[in-house]
Amino acid sequence: MPSLSGDDGGALLRWFGASKRDLPWRRTQDPYAIWVSEIMLQQTQVATVIPYWWRWMERFPTVDVLASADEQDVLSFWQGLGYYRRCRLLLDGARWVVEHGMPTTAEGWLQVPGIGKYTAGAIASIAYGCPAPLVDGNVERVYARLTGDGAANNELKDAAWRWAGKNLFRERPGDWNQALMELGATVCKPIAPDCKQCPLMQQCVAFQSWRVNELPAKPKKVQTVQLRHTVWVPIFGERFGLRQIEPGQWWEGMWEFPRILSDGNLDSPELREIVGPGWRESVGLVRHSVTHHRIAIDVSFVRCESASDRLRWVSRHELDALPMPAPQRKILKLVLAQLGV
Ligand code: ADE
Ligand code: SF4
Q1: Which of 57, 91, 132, 264 has its CA 20 to 30 A from that of 319?
Q2: Is the pTM of this model over 0.85?
Q3: Across residues 147-175, what is the average pLDDT?
C-alpha cells in the first residue's frame, strides 16, 4: 500500500501552505476556540459556521465563561446550526474541563464528554502539536482514492484510521491533518474531484488506474437477519409466569415470557417443559425490528394446571413494574386484548 512518505508528504504540506482557506479559527492556537470550531464544523458547512463561531467567541470567549453560562442562553447562540445535541455536549464538556482541567493530549481529550476520536485528534494535533491522527469523511475519501482501497463501511473507516496513524507527518501533525481534510473538502471532492490541481496526483492509485469515480466504495446496506421466535404466555389463576433473561443474551437481566428460537412450529417440548402442563391457545403474530434484525414471534397463551417452579409468577399489576423488552410488551398487549382484560 503506497504511503505518503518522503517528498509526497512535503508536496501536500506545501500545497496546504499555499492554498489553505483563511478561516478565523486558523488564526488562533487557543484550544477552546479550536474545540468550538471543530464541534460546529461537524455536519455544518464552513461558510455557515464562520458567523456563528464569531458570535459564540464574542459571547463565550473562554471555557470558564461558557461553563458558567445558562443552557438556554448557550442554546440561543446555536440557534440555526442544527443538531443541538452538539451544543449541549459542548457545554457539558466545558463544565468538565473547568472541573478537571484542560487536557493536553488526544487521550486526555477523549475523557471529555462529547469528544470522540476525531475531535480529540483535531484539538490535540492542531492546538498542541501532538502527533495524533484523525479521520473524518474527507480524509476517508482521500485515503480510499489515494491507495485504491475498495473497502466500504466500517472496514473502510478502520483502514483509514490505520493509514492516518502510519502516515501522520509527525513534525507538523496539525497542518498535516488539516491539509488532508482541506484536500478532501476543496480538491478531492465527492463528485468531480480536481485531480489536475492535486499535489498527490502522481502517486494516487485511483487517478492512475481511472477509478476515481468508483472510489470510495458505496456504503453497503447491512443485511437484515430474519428471526422466528415462539413465545408462550403462561397464566395460572390471575398470575403470569416469566423468567429472567440470562447473562450474555440480548436484554439480559430483563424479564420475558418463555421464548425459543423456532422454525414456525407453535408447539415445543422445550417450552412445555418450562411452562408445565396446561391448555395452549394460539393468539397471533407479533413483529419486532431491532437494529438489523426482523423478528417474527408466534404467540400463544397457556392456561396452566399448576404454577411451574421454573417461572416467577406475578400479577398484572406487578407486570407493569418489571423491566421487559419492547417486543415482550407487545406480546403482553396482544394477549390481554385476546383475554378481554
Ligand atoms: N473540517 C473540520 N475541521 C477542519 C479543519 N480544521 N480543517 C479543514 N477542514 C476541516
Ligand atoms: Fe483525489 Fe484526484 Fe488527488 Fe487522487 S488525484 S487524491 S482522486 S484529487
Answers
A1: 264
A2: no
A3: 97
